TrEMBL record, chains A, B:
Entry EC no(s): 7.2.1.3
Catalyzed reactions per annotation: monodehydro-L-ascorbate radical(out) + L-ascorbate(in) = monodehydro-L-ascorbate radical(in) + L-ascorbate(out); Fe(3+)(out) + L-ascorbate(in) = monodehydro-L-ascorbate radical(in) + Fe(2+)(out) + H(+); Cu(2+)(out) + L-ascorbate(in) = Cu(+)(out) + monodehydro-L-ascorbate radical(in) + H(+)
Biased composition (Polar residues): 245-255
GO CC annotations, alphabetized: apical plasma membrane; lysosomal membrane
Segments of skewed composition (Basic and acidic residues): 256-283
Region (Disordered): 237-283
GO molecular function terms listed in the Swiss-Prot or TrEMBL record: metal ion binding; transmembrane ascorbate ferrireductase activity
InterPro entries, A to Z: CYB561/CYBRD1-like (IPR043205), Cyt_b561/ferric_Rdtase_TM (IPR006593)
Membrane topology type: Multi-pass membrane protein
Top EC class, one word: translocase
Name used for this protein in its record: Plasma membrane ascorbate-dependent reductase CYBRD1
Transmembrane segments: 7-30, 50-70, 82-103, 123-144, 156-176, 196-217
Residues of the Cytochrome b561 domain: 13-218
Organismal lineage: Eukaryota, Metazoa, Chordata, Craniata, Vertebrata
Length: 283, 283
């Protein structure tokens, strides 16, 4: 892997920032707030920020970059797809529980649901995240989709994944803003009590975590190399040529280092064409 | 241009959504709020959302995709750099005035400054935006930076630009959340009065505008082609080889359509290397 040291430093930074964010959300809930419960009280609401930070931000972020960990390149592509889908499924379940906690708390306290921009954007992100998981499973994990469909949908899958991730972080920042304005009364948010500064720092860490993940996920030279991805999940009826297309799709940026050799001008142009369709360079 | 119709449809959608967002922010300020003034009253604060939506979101978004408009490809690269930098400068000035309006309003009303996560992230985004503009000017517009430095910094410039843009939209959504919670008292935000629904829709439109701009800016096959970009701004001391590197940097995805022909394996590898450094495929 090119720039292996830099990748490791960024990965360590992302893990550290993400892990500290999870810790801070626990401290917020248990030290500054009412802890956890499931009885319609504020303790039930507190599952909401805790599970959003842990699942919808941290685990989703790890799921995004899991293909790029160089020590997984000896594992089969199919296994990595299961890990990618599995982590995203865990994140989705935690996000759904987080949403249910907020709804149940609102209902128990006679607070209206779905009036705020935070709720509109958060729920929209969760719906698109679920659709992304469903279509990703149907198209890229199940072996039925033809190669041209995978090639067509991959840039959309990558773009959707990264923008949903960014939107989730934006929704989390709006949620923090709401919660601090609601909860901090005496002293108010505007007088910057320790909890306000503490949770603002949590918000900044979520932004930094997002920036680190998006950088790692969008560097073409850190993509999983070609040779490992050709052996699995050949679509039903897939030809050798089709498999090559899929390989090009997932790993063209490593073409010059892999065993693949593009010997003809036509093949080079096809390679560039798939590059251009965003296979190499979606963020 | 490949997919010219689709590009035009997306551009028209982005312009429409962006333009409607600007209109909605005017309606918000003049119909639902106190209009505009510069006397420390709420009318002074209202410059803040108006100028952020108009300048920091809409004009910045246009500045991001200005290189991709196919009818500008006959213009010199230098002219397009001036337009890109000029639009970003206008956006920065409007964002600074927007920030000053918020500070002056706070000071006049004895409201503390810089306590909220919105203010932390918004000011950080503005500082990074100004640095981005300064370094972009120094490295890519002035003719002094050597080619290797441009090649090294271009992926960072593109990544920073797109993530600052996304962060500005996130900060705008947090600002909308704050403002609606502060302003809507009787009826409250939670009872969904018309203004609440109206401004929530503005927030959604800002997200849609951002998604459209980021999609257009991240499709490699919609990059400005090579042949127009080789004629200008050769760095002092730049060689023909250096110019070729810059061309590769800005337009390699169009290599198969341009007059440039990569005839040697070494040149092909260098091309891929520059691709991999993110020239082709940042975000």
């Amino acid at each position: 892997m090119e720039d292996y040291g830099r990748f490791l430093a960024l990965l360590a930074s992302a893990l550290l920032v993400g892990f500290v964010s999870v810790i801070l959300s626990f401290v917020w809930v248990f030290h500054y707030r009412e802890g956890l419960s499931w009885d319609g009280s504020a303790g039930e609401f507190n599952w909401h920020p805790l599970l959003v930070v842990t699942g919808f931000v941290f685990i989703q972020g790890i799921a995004i970059i899991v293909y790029r960990l160089p020590w997984t390149w000896k594992c089969s592509k199919l296994l990595m797809k299961f890990i990618h889908a599995g982590l995203n499924t865990i994140a989705m379940i935690l996000a759904i529980v987080a949403m249910v906690a907020a709804f149940e708390y609102h209902n128990a306290q006679n607070i209206p649901n779905m009036y705020s921009l935070h709720s509109w954007i958060g729920l929209t992100a969760l719906i698109f995240y679920s659709l992304q998981l469903f279509f990703g499973f149907a198209v890229f994990l199940l072996p039925f989709a033809p190669v041209y469909l995978r090639a067509l949908l991959m840039p959309i899958h990558v773009y959707s994944g990264l923008t949903i991730f960014a939107t989730v972080i934006a929704a989390a920042l709006m949620g923090i803003t709401e919660k601090l304005l609601f909860s901090l009364r005496d002293p108010a948010y505007s007088s910057s009590p320790p909890e306000a500064t503490f949770v603002n720092c949590l918000g900044l860490l979520l932004v930094v975590f997002g920036l680190l993940i998006l950088w790692m996920a969008s560097r073409p030279h850190w993509k999983r190399p070609l040779e490992e991805s050709t052996k699995v999940l050949r679509p039903i009826g897939g030809t050798a040529e089709g498999t090559e297309v899929e390989s090009t799709m997932t790993s063209s940026s490593n073409a010059d280092k892999s065993d693949m050799r593009i010997n003809t001008e036509a093949a080079r142009k096809q390679n560039l064409k798939f590059d251009e369709s965003g296979q190499r360079s979606t963020m």
